[in-house]
Amino acid sequence: MTLSMYQAAVPVLSRRLAILSSLLAKGADHAAAAGIDPSDLLATRLAPDMFPLTRQVQIASDGAKGGVARLAGVEVPSFPDEETTIPELQARLARTIEFVDGVPADRFEGSEDRRITLKAGPRELEFAGRDFLFGFVLPNVFFHVTTAYAILRHRGVPIGKMDYLGAS
Amino acid sequence: MTLSMYQAAVPVLSRRLAILSSLLAKGADHAAAAGIDPSDLLATRLAPDMFPLTRQVQIASDGAKGGVARLAGVEVPSFPDEETTIPELQARLARTIEFVDGVPADRFEGSEDRRITLKAGPRELEFAGRDFLFGFVLPNVFFHVTTAYAILRHRGVPIGKMDYLGAS
To answer: Which residue of A91, A139, B77, B95 is most buried, as measured by CB atoms within 10 A?
Structure first.
């Protein structure tokens, strides 16, 4: 055994949120340069019944803080969904990163077998911690970061795969 | 330490590819029901300079087999990018899953510290195995599966988040 649950969760999620914040910064730059109202960018969705960019960012935040808190057995911090600008969304991501990074590594000990239940719409899902992380938390956060990226690309923001990967 | 590199790679990637195959099946059903040419679905992209659906599936396959092979220190199987139909793409995913699932778990021992180099466009990237898995392979495969999902949603295929998560 060569990995801890902490290693597979905290730095991975924290990095994704930092990258999402950078993608939003490029969105803001592009909106300014192209004369697009940033609110219009934030309201963009890829299908009429998909969530717009603002909500993608909020759910990425929720997925990361909820996932980490449940694995670590600490209370999930509640952030009201009130952001209406790119800087406000970036501030939320910064607060989320601060929370995620601040959970002590030793709280994750034994979390691979911890029973975790959560509501998903009308259903109650139950997982062992390991399956929760790899089958729910990571897929969910990657989903919303990628969808945010796709919305920005769809609107012409000049970003590429390396911006998503965050490769240095 | 409570996780192995094998656990964090093989079942996670294998499941994503199986889910992607299910999403494609729903795309095929929708195309048949709505009188859309499946080729038209496969050629859809979210931005003029993004890859179309076919290529998203091929790259998800490449990311999974390349990632697993490099971590395990075995040869990367080469699959020609010749698929032109949904069933052909599903066959490729099935072949990829068969390869990924067939790599013995003990080949991953020590892979967290293995030095891995790969070409990404004009650049050479170098990683320790752990960073390769969490900072490159998983982000990359999740990216292409999510983008495939987004393309299908953008074209009106009736799928939802639970289809992406694969929650039972």
So the answer is: A139
Question: Residue B143 is nearest to which of A4, A15, A164, comparing CB atoms?
Answer: A164
Question: How many Cβ contacts (< 8 angstroms) between chains A and B?
Answer: 119
CB contact under 8 A, B143 and A147: no
Tell me the nearest-neighbour CA distance from A128 into chain B, angstroms. Answer: 13
- Residue with token string 């099935």: B94
Say how far apart CA B141 and CA A146 lie, in whole Å.
11
pLDDT, tens digit, for every residue of A13-60? 999 999 999 999 999 999 999 999 999 999 999 999 999 999 999 999
Q: Taking the C-alpha atoms of A55, A57, A59 and A64 in order, what is their torsion angle to the nearest 10 degrees?
A: -170
Q: Which of B8, B130, B156 sits opposite A134 (nearest CB)?
A: B8
Query: Contacts of residue A12 in chain B, CB cutoff 8 Å?
Result: 134-135, 138
Question: B156–A112: do the CB atoms touch at under 8 Å?
Answer: no
Chain A contact for B91 (CB, 8 A cutoff): no
The predicted-structure confidence for B28-53, as pLDDT tens digits, reads as follows 999 999 999 999 999 999 999 999 99
The distance of A1 to chain B (nearest Cα, Å) reads 5
